[in-house]
Write a structure and sequence with these properties.
alpha+beta; 542 residues; globular; 16 helices
């Protein structure tokens, strides 16, 4: 659930619903290269974006936002998102649900094909979902699919036949999804990056190399023309996409960097049109004062938090974790360091998703923090060993780390040694549990109960390696709840349990910011921070 986007508006017309999409349109012919696209008579100008390089854009291997962002523009699920984030039909033109809410039937559009012209069938969706849940593929986000019948048992290897997953093809145009229990977020799930289909004929032929631009075949609005590691990626519109007529921008150029200052320089020199979050803090504040229309800031139900390795000293002691939690001045952090509308966080579930709240208590108490630390085995070792704080390279991450370094030294006498590393290395070390303490952010998803997975025993998303049987039982209760009120009740219990042991101190609620060149139309702020490229277009600069 890393880098997850929240609070999507759900399609709720009851459990027995039927959503009608637009009739299939005949795709227009699109040039096969960026050069041809830009020179064709009715082509629009390219969109140039500064962003982080994705670790992968294979839907079964998505690690964070950059990969998910690209994947959702290359592939399209049974459902999709409108420009405002609402759920709309995607590859499926309609769907219905059984009266008990357990069986959902999706009808595919006519004439769907992959970008190489191969017909798309219901079997492609079945095969792709099985691939995403299969333990041997090591999907870091397999937990996103646990609402599907037998998904959890398959991931835990309690069921060894992947065909037992509750997804079948009734015929070439009908996908049937069976759930573990009624789940009000099915259409959101089928629009997410984690349920996107992939071309079986290409994956089986090229194996791990199937995403190489020479081999990659997609079913979404764009295809990959080229990808140069650590430099750039170019996308061109997919002429075989069923809704190609809606795609205005024919060429998209991602330029990779981890440095906000460099991205801003590119923007200033008119070398890019859109900084996706890569904007220096001081420039944001300057642009705010000038009320520059190019700057966009909006609330986002995501969190910035700390992950503590609870299996190793010193964070295997609850006393130490509680001391660290009480010693961090979140209000000063959001006021002096971030300063862009962020709010201190009290829980690991973004508050915009749930009405549940953790128990009331003082959240910043340096005196109590020192008392707790003094009682720990860690403090008994004098001098206290330093602690390594792992962070990914960015100006803001560095500033936050330096604040924590000063804050914890001042309030606890603890020395933090900062390890600033590139994003890919960060993810590798995170997944291998090679850290003591690290900074991380998360957002995404649509069901608050999904967030309990980040602290469940044995979960791939439980980077803290914390284990509590009482919490696990409550998480199970939340997943089985069939009403939102029962989900909220279970979450309230879970928050109380986690609040006592603090395996994952939440620091603040996020906002999203972007620098967008005037003239780019179709960018709509939404709680999921989801902006599909197909809805963007170039108009006249204001």
């Amino acid at each position: 659930m890393m880098e997850r986007k929240l609070l999507a508006l759900i399609l709720t017309a009851g459990l027995a619903i039927a959503c009608k999409g637009n009739p299939t349109d005949t795709p227009k012919t699109t040039p096969a290269t960026p050069e041809a696209a830009e020179s064709s008579p009715n082509a629009s100008r390219a969109l140039r974006i500064a962003y982080f390089e994705p670790k992968s854009y294979d839907p079964a291997h998505l690690h964070g936002g950059p990969g998910k962002e690209v994947a959702e523009n290359l592939f399209e699920g049974l459902c999709s998102h409108a420009s405002d984030g609402k759920i709309i039909p995607g590859q499926a033109k309609s769907w219905t649900a059984s009266k008990d809410g357990l069986v959902w039937t999706f009808e595919l559009r006519d004439g769907l094909v992959w970008s190489d012209g191969t017909p798309i069938t219901a079997h492609d969706f079945v095969w792709s979902l099985r691939r995403s849940i299969d333990p041997k593929n090591g999907n870091p986000k397999a937990s996103e699919l646990l609402a599907i019948k037998n998904a959890r048992a398959i991931t835990k290897k309690e069921i060894k036949t992947i065909e037992s997953l509750g997804v079948t093809a009734k015929d070439n145009k009908t996908v049937v999804v069976t759930l573990e229990s009624p789940y009000p977020y099915v259409t959101n799930l089928m629009a997410s990056g984690y349920t996107l289909p992939v071309p079986k004929h290409v994956v089986e032929k090229y194996g791990k190399e199937w995403t190489n631009p020479k081999h990659l075949v997609t079913n979404g609005a764009y295809i990959v023309h080229s990808h140069t590691h650590d430099q750039e990626m170019q996308l061109v519109a997919n002429s075989k996409y069923w809704d190609a007529k809606s795609v205005s921008i024919q060429t998209v150029k991602y330029r990779y960097t981890k440095e906000a200052r460099l991205a801003y320089q590119w923007y200033s020199l008119n070398e890019i049109d859109w900084c996706m979050g890569l904007i220096p803090q001081e420039e944001i504040k300057r642009l705010q004062k000038q009320r520059d229309p190019a700057l966009h800031i909006h609330p986002y139900d995501g969190l910035f938090y700390l992950v503590l390795d609870t299996q190793k000293p010193p964070f295997n002691e609850t006393l130490v974790r509680r001391a660290f939690d009480l010693a961090i001045d979140r209000a000063r952090l959001t006021r002096q360091v971030t300063g862009l509308g962020e709010r201190p966080a009290k829980t690991f579930i973004p508050p915009g998703m749930t009405s549940s709240r953790p128990p009331r208590r003082v959240r910043y108490d340096p005196e109590e923090a020192r008392k707790l630390l003094a009682q720990s085995k860690f403090a008994a070792t004098q001098p206290m060993p330093s602690i390594e704080l792992m962070l990914s390279s960015s100006d803001l991450q560095q500033k936050i780390a330096e604040f924590l370094q000063r804050n914890l030294k001042e309030n606890l006498g603890v020395t933090l040694v900062l390890q600033n590393i590139d994003w890919k290395t960060f993810l590798d070390r995170l997944n291998k549990n090679e850290f003591q303490m690290c900074q991380l952010s998360m957002g995404g998803g649509f069901n608050p109960a999904q967030y309990l997975d980040v602290l469940e025993t044995g979960s791939q998303s439980n980077y803290a390696k914390w284990s509590n049987s009482e919490f696990d039982a409550v998480a199970k209760e939340a997943r089985k709840a069939t009403t939102k009120s029962n989900v909220e009740a279970a979450i309230t219990k879970a928050l109380a349990i986690a609040d006592k042991e603090v395996p994952m101190p939440a620091l603040y609620r996020l906002t999203k910011r972007a620098l967008i060149r005037p003239g780019l139309k179709g960018f709509n702020a939404n709680a999921e921070d989801r902006h599909l490229l197909k809805w963007l277009s170039w108009g006249k600069s204001e």
